[in-house]
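Record 1 of the preview.
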Amino acid sequence: MVALAAGLLVGRSTRRHGQATPAGTTVPPAATTPAPTTTVPATPAPSPAGTAGPPAQPPPAGEQFGVNVNRLFNDGTYTEGQIDSQLQALRATGATLARSDALWEATEPSPPVNGVHHYRWEFDDEIAGALAAHGLRWLPIIDYSAPWAQSIPGQDHSPPRSPVDYAAYAAAVAARYGPGGVFWREHPTLDPEPVQIFEIWNEPDNGQFWTPQPDAGRYADLYLQARDAITTVDPTGRVIVGGLTMPTTFLPAMLGARPQLKGHIDGVGIHPYGSPSVVLEKVRADRAALTSLGMATVPMYVTEFGWTTHPAGALNYVPAELRPAYITSTLAALGHIDCGLAASLLYTWVTPERDGNDSQDWYGIHAASGGSTPDSVAFAAGLRQATEPAPANPLCPGG
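->
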């Protein structure tokens, strides 16, 4: 499930879904003037060959529920007041988790000098501050390649030339927004909602997000370097494989290329797009793949699923009158299956609803103008059903 977009700040493709957006962002509500910056004197040292960092975290105690909010921040068209209104409505549904990009290009637009990294935090601070103000916890996607780091010039979806530089940024995000992070100390009036889950890239098994083509071994190296760096500054952080579209083939390829990954993966993001029944079947198949790899207890994170309502016939299209029932039934089911899910997040909260021919403009479930819709009402109903006590649905053998 893909769409490329002219991106934020530097005019490159950065967002998970969406169309071209104007450069720049709104003024971050939590930012200071001048912009908050961090200078990091050295990049993390690579893990020794054949090692994979600390053992995997145990599965979390329960499942979290939420939604993607990427367009709310990435589009650069929403005012502080509009963002506040949208997040207030989101929190009222019962959601507690919000997924959005921590764009490397926005935070480190220039290369390190003599190994020294210089990070500008306006963009990330806006997200962390706005979400925390509404009791929402950020699930950041550490993505994509900053312009100076691209292995293919002009392609931010090409992997970084050096996984060490990417890992340095990932560690800096953890140090700023994780438990006891610098951001929370700089904003003592906020109730902290420290980041607990770090997603490494988005759809690395998809050629439009890992250009020119997926490379399981190269992605495994990126994951290992980033996980090592994050857990050095936040030993409690859960570092998950970036949402996969084809886990049943990509995960075996990852472990085949880097066997040391086994026992060192905190979780796997999956993107099971399709009808409600297809979503569940994909989840079942993905759990079976993990079990076959000896990873039966590794939690899965459904970091995207959803449907567009325009134009008819588009990938993942569903008529508008059917989407509310799809949302409620799928969320309710994801809350009660025995497949080891740690989180389920719908794609996406709001999109601009401008171009009837652009399917990416119509995934949003809450009105761009700020009002509720049958979809957002259905989302709240689905969350209530997902979190109600009920026997587990035995979808996954051995689950």
